[in-house]
Design goal:
- With 124 residues, the chain is mainly α.
- It contains 3 helices and 2 strands; from the N terminus they run αβααβ.
- A two-stranded parallel ribbon has the order 1-2.
- The relative contact order is 0.08.
Length: 124
């Protein structure tokens, strides 16, 4: 019977030692897992912010392209009856046109710009 108690005490001691060892090992692992989860959440947030920023930049580019096109077309139709431009207007349209093309402008405005800059009279 004494041997049974010794064996039982040894098994219980082993179990308690193993539990203590697991406790000591799990706490640092839990901390690392928590850090990894926080880092993943931060990365996910940054990726979402980046996607939002790219979408907003794309929308801003399109809005600016529309404004540039509107300014060029408006001046075209304003001066169409006389087909004359002041030199400063041509400079302004050229700056607008160059920026419009950088943003991927279309052939409609290219044709308008070509007409104004090559076929129309330029007044100084």
């Amino acid at each position: 019977m004494l041997d049974f108690i010794k064996d039982a005490a040894a098994v219980i001691g082993f179990i308690l030692s193993a539990a203590a060892l697991l406790t000591l090992m799990i706490k640092p692992l839990r901390g690392r897992v928590a850090k990894a989860l926080k880092l993943k959440a931060l990365l996910d947030g940054q990726l979402l912010d980046e996607e939002t920023r790219r979408t907003e930049a794309r929308l801003n580019r399109e809005a600016l392209k529309c404004l540039l096109r509107d300014d060029i077309v408006r001046l075209y139709y304003k001066r169409l009856p006389e087909k004359k431009l002041h030199a400063y207007e041509l400079e302004n349209i050229t700056a607008l046109y160059d920026t419009y093309i950088l943003f991927g402008g279309n052939s409609f405005v290219r044709e308008i710009y070509r007409k104004m800059s090559t076929e129309w009279q330029i007044e100084k």
